[in-house]
Amino acid sequence: MTDADLLSAFATGDRSAALELTQRLTPRVMGQAFRMLGNRAEAEDVAQEAMMRLWKIAPDWDAERALVTTWLYRVVANLCTDRLRKRGRGVALDAIEEPADSAPSVAAEMQDSARITALRSALADLPDRQAQAVSLRHLEELGNPQIADIMDTNVRTVESLIARGKRALIAKLAGRKDELGYDDDNG
């Protein structure tokens, strides 16, 4: 069943549809919220609020208007943006929990951790919309049309935001290639 089918089934009282849709969507919205906020507890709160809003609009859902995921990503982005505005953009990197890593060696885990920290830091220095577009495209692996819907803009603007964001990230991280374990041949 599609997300819209499950949402429609929930609206008519099918609790198993809600469970399946929750299991399908929550990890994705949690990931987006964590990448935007850098705080697991806040990301959980945002994911829960976004899912609650989804259940509230279920009876009125119009599948012709948007994909469920597009609507949900937009809600998560808006909730995260509101939280970022309230607390200020800066987050101490030491305060951010590192996600669990299944790398086989301690050295690989340390290198992955350094890379993640460097990317988060570089993303945090980007303007909000550039960071959001780059994250949705390259971390969430969404297409530009879906990102445009989420960000309430057009595809051309999304392409521009992603291109500028990637150039800025490259410039910020270029001097750290050796430190992060990248060399010119395979980095």
Strand and helix map with partners:
Elements: H1 3-11, H2 15-37, H3 40-57, H4 68-87, H5 106-125, H6 128-139, H7 144-151, H8 155-173
Helix pairs in contact: 1-2, 2-3, 2-4, 3-4, 4-7, 5-8, 6-8, 7-8
What is the helix tally?
8
- Find the structural class using helix and strand composition: mainly alpha
Terminus-to-terminus distance:
40 Å
Radius of gyration: 18 Å
- Sheet with most strands: none
Look up the CATH topology of the largest domain: Arc Repressor Mutant, subunit A
Order of helices and strands: HHHHHHHH
User: Segments where pLDDT lies below 50 for 5+ residues?
Assistant: none
How many DSSP-defined strands? 0
Fold and architecture overview:
The protein is an all-alpha fold and 187 residues long. It has 2 domains: 87 residues, Rna Polymerase Sigma Factor, Chain: A (Orthogonal Bundle), CATH 1.10.1740.10; 98 residues, Winged helix-like DNA-binding domain superfamily/Winged helix DNA-binding domain (Arc Repressor Mutant, subunit A). It is built from 8 helices and no strands. The longest helix has 23 residues. The chain starts with a helix and ends in a 14-residue tail after the last helix. The mean pLDDT is 84.
